[in-house]
Amino acid sequence: MERRIAMSFKVLFIYPNFRSETLVPPGITLLSRILKNNEFEVGLFDTTDYGMDLSKDYDRVQEKYLTVRPTVHRKLKYAEHDVWQDLNDKANSFSPDLIAMSCTESTFLLGVEVIKHIENCDIPVVLGGTFATFAPERALDFPEIDIVCVGEGEIPLLELCKRMRSGRDYMDVPGLWVRSRDGSVRKNPVPPLVNLDENPIDFDIGLFDSERLVRPMAGELYRMAPVETIRGCPYHCAFCNSPGQNIMFDTPAKKFVRKKSMLKVREELLHYKNNFGVEYNFFWADTFLVMSQKELDEFCEIYQDVRLPFWVQTRVETINEWRLEKLKKVGLARIAFGIEHGDEKFRQEKLIKEFSNDKAVKALDIVADFGIPYNTNNMVGYPHETSELAMQTIELNRRFRGVDTTSCFTFAPYYGTPARDMAVAAGFMAKDLIAPGNADDSILNMPQFPPAEIEKFRRCFSLRVRFPKDRWPEIKEAEADDSILEKLQAEYREMFFKEPVKISF
User: Fold this and answer.
1) CA-CA distance, 428 to 425, in Å (whole number)?
2) Is the pLDDT assigned to residue 22 strictly greater than 90?
3) What is the mean pLDDT of the chain?
4) Tally of domains within the chain
5) Do 475 and 65 contact (CB within 8 A), yes or no?
6) CB-based contacts of 393, cutoff 8 Å, min separation 6
7) Residue 503 domain flag
8) Which residue of 26, 141, 251, 460 pairs with 255 in a disulfide if CB–CB is 3.0 to 4.6 A?
9) What is the pLDDT of residues 288-300, one digit of tens each?
10) Alpha-carbon distance 355 to 382, whole Å?
């Protein structure tokens, strides 16, 4: 007879989030499934549907600046509710033994605010996610945080819960930084890297409201799920904290980067399709096409059983004709490319993205020839950038044939990135500043390119990319005149967004 654990132990996940149409977070759904498989009770408080601060809603800001196609937005289910009353109702009814909060740097302060609003809270709080991983000491500056998970959470969170349930000491759990009663912090080393194939494939998507699966893509709404094929990234972009994982785990990139077997990917995809009605798959790899020919062939073979459109993000260096031909046949519906900056020397030396402009143009010409919709992601406000350098990003994007949308985000100096260190060293920001999201205004104080000029550049980016240069004087006026901007935006939508994107699958 299977042994049953009599002692109940409850974990309440808190997901602080400004974005109304972001994907269901795969980290929480994976950890929830692992805990449930080990007989823990799991609850959730998700701030998404409360519309906490629409000015920070990345998805709606993108639409405002023409960087995504306009869409009908799903209704925020709890927009009229008192978020703090609902929070305390949940905490009181569920009565958790542990609060587990997962967040990024840009949502950390919102998460702290959530914890502060739990009345009479003497429940231990463990923090996970990218901010916890790359800024554990900064996170523990906040008394609301008791424990920080540094690195991957599958092993540490389960071990923490097991020890707490049985009343054992958890000060030495690998991967956790734990604040003791005297205020000192025990900093434990990270555990071994996770074998992705040993994780369950049935991520606990049902933990979230069913409507949270609905997300816009190219102007239409679909039920979407995030799917992991690879963890880590072999590239070394200076603005990204993924390369920092190699240092943390003291392993070369080729060892930190791990791939899930295609048979496991197939099981996961079919689970979402058959049990949650997923209509469109979202592969959340930093660079999806870090694949050998054999791996790509395996993916295309297993995906024939799925038969749903899918989105990927990849780099221009990974594109060629035979890859696109195979992927389009099985459902590739859209690609996102991180271009980031148009000045070749600045991009290669400062951002550490080493492809040439001509390479980017050639790669995206191939995508256009296959009729696959694509968008480019760019940034502005990078340390030491000038307005003249930024204009080169517009010039490069003007060379991309067939591009559907062009995004321009504010550079965000996240912990764990060389670019943040560069900004601090130059005196552009305080060392301990917690960065907002890339839809917010710049927090760098650069005399040669102040935040107000960065915002003007960003809000007219798509107009300058797609409109002829004889319209640029009018666009210049729109930088400071909302009425002119709105008129030009309406014209842009009519010209470029009137016809829907066709999925040729």
Assistant:
1) 8
2) no
3) 93
4) 3
5) no
6) 339, 340, 341, 342, 343, 378, 380, 408
7) no
8) 251
9) 999 999 999 999 9
10) 18
